[in-house]
Amino acid sequence: MKQTSYLTFNLHDVRYGIKANFVKEIFFLPELTPIAEAPMDIVGILNLRGKIVPIMHLDLRLGNPMSECQVSDRVIVLECDGLIIGAIVNDVKEVRPIASNIIESAIDYGRANKINPAFIGGVAKEENESIILLDANALIREPDAVKNLTEEGQTEEDFDSRETIRTIGSFYQACCPNATPAEKAIFRRRAENLRQVSFEETSEVAGQMPIAVVGLGGEHFGIALDTVREFINIRSYTPIPCCPKHIVGNMNLRGEILTLVDIRNILNLPATTVNTGTKAVVINVDDIVAGLPVDEVLDVMYLHPETVNPVPIAVSAGSSAYLKGTISYQDKNLSLIDLPILIAQGGLEVNEKV
To answer: In terms of pTM, does the model score above 0.85?
Structure first.
């Protein structure tokens, strides 16, 4: 039976999928530069490591009113027929194989009826959900106009001077008029990070450490990105009898049994109930794979090691052993978790026999 890998994501309360081979990268929404004479669904352009990438809002492309952008929105960068373009969505879920025999070509699924059939490659009907599969090539409106946008400012110098790009208005006025000053700072920092040449290519950026920023118990924590495999929403899980309280249970992640491990206790944070829909960070540390439930995934960012401060004395001695240090984030302290130490020495066994 033929299977094809799809990246699945949400826009409002609808689950979509797009063939994974079209996807180049995914990142949180940064500040964009709105420009004149762009197709109506292009809300701005982005300097992505020296290249100009037009960014569409999927709402507009599908013919819907555009919802206000949020700091939690994502951009999926696609490459179609040699063109590179980004699409704004609400939340990225996972890459998953979808068998051809569950894909229906007839568009009879509720919300799909409101979408131009030209955009839809089919609807995958699974036991618990339906996924609208989008045609990546059909998503690009006026491909010649999109190509012109990328050719008008191929270099970082052209982008910065704006001599060849006619900008209009403000990203915040057009896309997120209610953004707070703190959220605007996040959008701007993301744009600055993305404009830098990839950290594999320059010695300056090579010294930076990429981290995922998560919220736990009202506090901010950073997890080294090289230990993060993916972010997921917890579906149903099965509690395991007679296990330590940090073992939440097991869930099925695309056929893999994933153990959910709650690290709140070891960090001296109040316990909370893990429910269906709770976000989790899937980590891989020394061949140990586990899911860490979190309150929210806030950001992905790069930091210079010299900006890391020692753990304050006021932090509990018990939890400080599992922290690398702290940095300032949104005018608050962000604690950097040392996952290898926490897993090895924190008593958080995930393979304990019962």
So the answer is: no
